[in-house]
Amino acid sequence: MSGLARLLAGHTAPGVYHWPSPAEVADIEHAAHQAGWHVVVLDTWQVDDKAGFLDACRAAFDFPHWTGHNFDALADALSEVRPGDATGVLVLWDGWGVFARSDRRAFDVAVDVFADRVEFERGGTFAVVLRGPGPDDVQLPELDPHPH
């Protein structure tokens, strides 16, 4: 069973993970939907700073235009993201390596904000998967793409 399958099946605790999988976004979305999860694709391939990241989050999560433009506002908005009838919310973060290399401080804060949302139990199950390559010094648990 792949790392993603274990997460979606509840065999791996929700968290913020790195997953070096080359799987296509559509295939990941399909697998998550089949497991009953709601998927939010966060695309930051063209993001190299905090403002761009916050804009990408606003678009990906469909936050209102008046949502504040700082990490505290992002944390507040994420606390309102609920799975509804789904098992959980899976954030598939693509292109994270670009942001991590160009604005490491803001990237680290963004990861912390997501980790805080994962721990916010009243908000329901929430997991974040940073898919693909990024800086080697990013210390996140890896979602093993290989069967055990």
Tell me what you see in this structure.
The chain is α/β, with parallel strands linked by helices and 148 residues long. It has one domain (3-131): Barnase, Chain D (2-Layer Sandwich), CATH 3.30.370. It is built from 6 helices and 4 strands. Helix 4 packs parallel to helix 6 and helix 5 packs across helix 6. The radius of gyration is 14 Å and the shape is globular.
A few lines on this structure:
The chain is an alpha/beta fold and 148 residues long.
Topology:
Layout: H1 3-8, E1 16-19, H2 25-34, E2 38-43, H3 50-61, H4 71-79, E3 89-94, H5 96-102, H6 104-119, E4 126-131
Parallel strand pairs: 1-4, 2-3, 3-4
Helix pairs in contact: 4-6, 5-6
Question: What attributes does this structure have?
Answer:
148 residues, alpha/beta, Barnase, Chain D, 4-stranded parallel β-sheet
Coarse shape: globular
What amount of the residues lies in strands?
5-15%
Q: Indicate how many domains the architecture comprises.
A: 1
Q: SSE string, helix = H, strand = E? A: HEHEHHEHHE
Largest sheet: 4 strands, parallel
Structural class: alpha/beta
The helix count comes to 6
CATH superfamily: Barstar-like
- Residue windows where pLDDT falls under 50 for at least 5 positions: none
CATH domain class name: Alpha Beta
Q: What's the CATH topology name?
A: Barnase, Chain D
- How many strand units? 4
Rounded to an integer, what's the Rg over CA atoms?
Answer: 14 Å
Residue share in helix: 40-55%
